[in-house]
């Protein structure tokens, strides 16, 4: 019977036997900032994936807005379901290209950990009022390096952190697995936001210009299938992740259509100004009443010699939608009025 201490090593050897030569091999990782003895069972990227999945920041994603603020209905996406869809699409492509699925999934699960309440409305608000600005991909890195695990961070591998940091459009991931997540983030949100917009009667399938749907497909499933197949067929056996020019152009044109028809639609986004103002008022309140921040934020500020602004941003960015609203009511609305 195989000794348990050999399981990880056997899995690492299997990667070299099966994965593409362009894959990121677990035993070739650049490692962690703080050395840890390797797990007997799990390779490094699988261990990172598990740490993200069990983090508090990951659990909070289920109550953070994706696109629609406070939608009526249980079937609209949240930041958590978006993350899971990115992970699923990314793993499908990684598996087909024989790349490292554990690394791909770890990056996908962690890419939005630093997102604010109220989606991009919250990000705009914090970016506007914070003296140092705010970008959710930078906050995601701060979550895994500093904020989680009582200030010790998750001590993730360099490859996972690189993928999280570079998942935005302008990012340049160092691994093919990171490049997969970078493009699958867009594939996921473009298509599931169309699905949610149709559900919310903001648009219909027939409203989408035929010049895009004739190329990509006339349903959620058809479009996802087209995009995944295109990436796999164009990237197979290559040291990069490609889309064909026709498909890539159609996808980004469809993204532009979504910005025009959904992401800036008053019906879909009508409450964003109130959400932004709510976070601004919370920021102003804690700026004047710093002692009311949770003790762990004050302690971290002192230990790391960081500004009060950073502590306030960390606290607000970590809030869920409903927690932010509850805090606003608690701090801003007299108790006698809040019952009405």
Give a quick set of tags describing it:
18 helices; Hypothetical protein af1432; 340 residues; mainly alpha
Structural commentary:
Helix content is 61%, strand content 0%. The protein is flat and about 65 Å long. The chain has a domain of 225 residues: Hypothetical protein af1432 (Orthogonal Bundle). By secondary structure, the chain is mainly alpha-helical. The mean pLDDT is 94.
Summarize the model shown.
By secondary structure, the protein is an all-alpha fold.
Q: What is the H level of CATH, i.e. the homologous superfamily of the domain at 45-269?
A: Hypothetical protein af1432
Structural class: mainly alpha
Strand content: under 5%
Largest sheet: none
What would you call the shape? flat
> How far is the first residue's CA from the last residue's CA?
68 Å
Under the CATH scheme, the architecture of the domain at 45-269 is Orthogonal Bundle
Q: How much helical structure, as a percent, in the residues?
A: 55-70%
Number of DSSP-assigned strands:
0
Question: How many DSSP helices?
Answer: 18
**Average pLDDT figure:** 94
- Can you tell me the CATH topology of the domain at 45-269? Hypothetical protein af1432
Q: Flag low-confidence runs.
A: none
Series of secondary-structure elements, N-terminal to C-terminal: HHHHHHHHHHHHHHHHHH
The oligomerization state is single chain
The radius of gyration is 21 Å
CATH class of the domain at 45-269: Mainly Alpha
Write the layout of secondary structure elements.
Elements: H1 7-18, H2 44-53, H3 56-60, H4 79-96, H5 101-110, H6 119-129, H7 136-147, H8 158-165, H9 176-199, H10 210-216, H11 220-235, H12 245-263, H13 266-269, H14 272-288, H15 295-304, H16 308-317, H17 321-332, H18 335-338
